[in-house]
């Protein structure tokens, strides 16, 4: 998690811009034809941006400032993005946007489907780090993906609104300064968490735990069932409970957005075994206005959970 120099960052944004231009060249004739910006954002001269989930929308807002108007499709923590069914109004928002930011890695396929036939420049967070369908899709927890996605968004803004190119470069630099602070905090915390065995009801925070150099010790049978979105067997559940009782697991990570009777049993076993619990959700909770503050708070939770 090295801190990128200004020169390297400029090259990263330029590379992202080249990628976006290449993608645009391969786009459909539909996407290149006519004007469909009839919104207030268009009439005010702002870039109209649509984001599938609120955490990426917050990054888009930070990087665009007063020159953009961002609409988030999903904002609630009680809805799972993969299963979300967009309304006709949601789809229409992609049609009028100049920039669309989606997660990718099959996390929000409905958003990618809605954005692809439009004229919007599409930024897919997972693709900025080569993460594909079948890989862990919770990529906003990854420092590398956050940084790469920020540069891709900046490149998209500079393409859509070249007259404010310097403004977007300045906002990008300011955003990266905050990301660098977060990464420094992660590095400092990893001195306490390195090698620490943890288990999780889902792999939602895997990238953050990996940045913290922790060891995923979730029992294999349960982990495979979770990854396949299937029900763990009674033997898998018992194995998880027994592993927690044995005292080997030093931290338990619980995705409250996917709570059910099975996770209740395992969380209960963690409590009975006095295993420190970190509870989190997939969508950015409403008390946070940007992704970096949310990630920083989670790092604090991980640090506090270390005995």
From TrEMBL:
Gene3D superfamilies reported for this sequence: Nitrogenase molybdenum iron protein domain
Gene Ontology terms: biological process: metal ion transport
Pfam families assigned: ZnuA
Signal peptide: 1-31
Keyword terms, alphabetized: Metal-binding, Signal, Transport
Top-level division of the source organism's lineage: Bacteria
GO cellular component terms given for this protein: cell envelope
UniProt protein name: Probable solute binding protein of ABC transporter system
UniProt source species: Bifidobacterium longum (strain NCC 2705)
């Amino acid at each position: 998690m090295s801190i990128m120099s200004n020169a390297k960052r400029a090259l990263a944004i330029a590379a992202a811009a080249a990628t976006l231009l290449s993608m645009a060249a391969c786009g459909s004739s539909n996407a290149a034809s006519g004007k469909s910006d009839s919104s207030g954002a268009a009439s005010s001269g702002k870039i109209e941006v649509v984001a599938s989930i609120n955490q990426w929308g917050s990054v888009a807002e930070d990087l665009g400032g007063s020159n953009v108007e961002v609409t988030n499709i999903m904002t609630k923590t009680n809805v799972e993005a993969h299963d979300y069914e967009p309304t006709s109004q949601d789809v229409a928002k992609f049609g009028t946007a100049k920039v669309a930011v989606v997660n990718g890695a099959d996390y929000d396929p409905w958003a990618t489907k809605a954005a692809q036939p439009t004229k919007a420049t599409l930024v897919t967070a997972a693709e900025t780090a080569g993460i594909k369908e079948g890989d862990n899709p919770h990529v906003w927890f990854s420092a590398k993906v956050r940084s790469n996605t920020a540069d891709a968004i900046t490149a998209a803004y500079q393409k859509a609104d070249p007259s404010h190119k310097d403004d977007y470069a300045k906002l990008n630099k300011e955003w990266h300064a905050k990301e660098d602070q977060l990464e420094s905090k992660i590095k400092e915390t990893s001195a306490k968490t390195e090698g620490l065995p943890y288990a999780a009801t889902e792999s939602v925070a895997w990238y953050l735990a990996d940045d913290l150099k922790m060891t995923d010790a979730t029992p294999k049978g349960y982990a495979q069932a979770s990854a396949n979105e299937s029900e763990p067997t009674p033997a898998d559940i018992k194995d998880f409970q027994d592993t927690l009782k044995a005292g080997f697991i030093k931290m338990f990570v619980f995705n409250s957005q996917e709570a059910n009777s099975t996770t209740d049993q395992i969380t209960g076993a963690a409590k009975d075994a006095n295993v420190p619990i970190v509870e989190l959700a997939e969508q950015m909770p409403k008390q946070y206005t940007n992704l970096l503050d949310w990630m920083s708070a989670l790092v604090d939770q991980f640090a506090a959970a270390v005995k």
